[in-house]
Amino acid sequence: MAKRLTKKEREILYNLGVTAFKNGLPAIPANDKELMEKYIKGCQVGEGLPYIKAWVKGWHSANLA
After folding, report:
1. Quick check: 58 pLDDT over 70?
2. How many angstroms separate the CA atoms of 54 and 52, rounded?
3. Is residue 2 part of a domain?
4. Is the pLDDT score of 3 beyond 80?
5. What backbone phi and psi angles, to 5 degrees, belong to 44?
6. How confident is the model at residue 4 (pLDDT cuts 50, 70, 90)?
7. CB 18 within 8 A of CB 59
8. Please, is 39 exposed, middle or buried when counting C-beta atoms within 10 Å of its C-beta (0-12, 13-18, 19+)?
9. With contact defined as beta carbons under 8 Å apart, do 59 and 17 qualify?
10. pLDDT tens per residue across span 19-55
11. 39 within some domain
12. Is residue 1 part of a domain?
């Protein structure tokens, strides 16, 4: 079951996505080593989705800005 993120966690993951965009990473969360190692590693199938969604939201917001 997917975990509900706290506001602070969503903010951190959103900022990871923004940073990834600024560092020239494509909109592929699996390419972000920090996201994968700190947040996704150890998740069961489906549990990492909230982390990925927050990261993607940050990446695309930075891209639109």
Report:
1. yes
2. 5
3. no
4. no
5. -80, 165
6. confident
7. yes
8. buried
9. yes
10. 999 999 999 999 999 999 999 999 999 899 999 999 9
11. yes
12. no
